[in-house]
Amino acid sequence: MNILDKAKAKSDYLVLMRREFHKYPELSLQEKETSERIQRELKKMNIDYVVVGDYGVIATIEGKNKDNVIALRADIDALPVIEKNDLDYKSQNEGVMHACGHDAHIAMLLGAASLLNENKELINGTVKLCFQQAEEVGKCHDNVLNELKKFNIKSVFAIHIWSEIPVGKVSIEAGSMMSSCDLFKIEIKGKGSHGAIPHKGVSPIIVACSIVNNINAARNYEIDPSHSVVISFGSIQSGVAGNIIPETATIIGSIRTFSDEDRAHIIEMINRVSKTSAEAFRAEALCEITVSVDSVFNDKKCTEIAQKSLESFLGKESLYDFGKLYVSENFGTYLKTYPGVMAFVGAKNDSKGCDVIHHNDKFNIDEDALPIGSSLYVQYAIDALNNL
């Protein structure tokens, strides 16, 4: 079977689906219409499915030896971004945009569903097609994993469209590919006073500045400098007027690492340094981790299978060495549970104006990437079931 030719024959369908989802995006945890549209397409294909959580969907296609199971995953939520593209299929839901390519992920997995359903004789097992909600806020992967644990899952596989990789190229690399992400919030409680008599109060702003400086210093001296660790401070909020010492301050930031050990150390350090820095100024500090996403670590054997899958229909020259990313994806939690791989399918094309980074209000993709992604979903499922 020439899978790419079969996928290209469905290009009109892939583009239609991608543009429809792009036109009507929905925020994380609100993907009702998106989920129902996916379900309608699966019904048309006579593919059985279950709904997990509020809006997640898991479809099942059975071939031979159905007890061996592979899971393919796509995320379905959009972002709170006002789209500035001039497109016929521009977002019609104000303030919401598929600015990360999840519309393409849905379309590619639906295309893969159609192809797998038409070629069941090639499937040496069962394929679970998982449409996950709320990836952008690091949630709802547990709904999918709770359903998958009922089955003999051999491997999990996901695709992320990527706007820095040329269309026709795909990055499939073993090891660390995307960092973990932990968002933290530090609440500081000082003592308010008149700005003319600061010694009568305890300024949470001074404490916040100290905490930021001390965390940066501790990071430099407590973590091996050869390790990849990023701590970013995105917000410091406090006070309303120049002549008032406020009562409280809030710091919000993020931690990104590729090592579980570094991750645990940084979290402990931020808690410790926040508390001791505040105490030095007679204030209090409470640190809370609000979102946690595991790093994406591609299994070596699964990566080799995926590379050969790609080469079988697109040639060895399509493999693209891209390296690891500091952005995060909660597919990492799947990979802590099962061996698997995430592939990055190129969607960059300068001549079409598809050259803007993800999460930008002018993000767009070269839709020639869609049949490539669908083909890779299908070929990996077939090959992994034959080789794992």
Anisotropy-based shape: elongated
Low-confidence parts: none
Mean pLDDT: 96
Distance between the termini: 21 Å
CATH homologous superfamily designation of the largest domain: Zn peptidases
Instruction: Give the H and E element order.
Output: HHHEEEHEHEEEEEHEEEHEEHHEH
Please compute the radius of gyration using only Cα atoms.
Answer: 23 Å
Share of helix among residues? Answer: 25-40%
Strand content of the residues, in percent?
A: 25-35%
Number of domains: 2
Q: How many strands?
A: 15
- Global structural class: alpha+beta
State the CATH topology of the largest domain: Aminopeptidase
CATH architecture of the largest domain: 3-Layer(aba) Sandwich
Instruction: Please write the CATH class name of the largest domain.
Output: Alpha Beta
Q: In order across it, which strands form the biggest sheet?
A: 1-2-4-3-5-15-6
Largest sheet: 7 strands, mixed
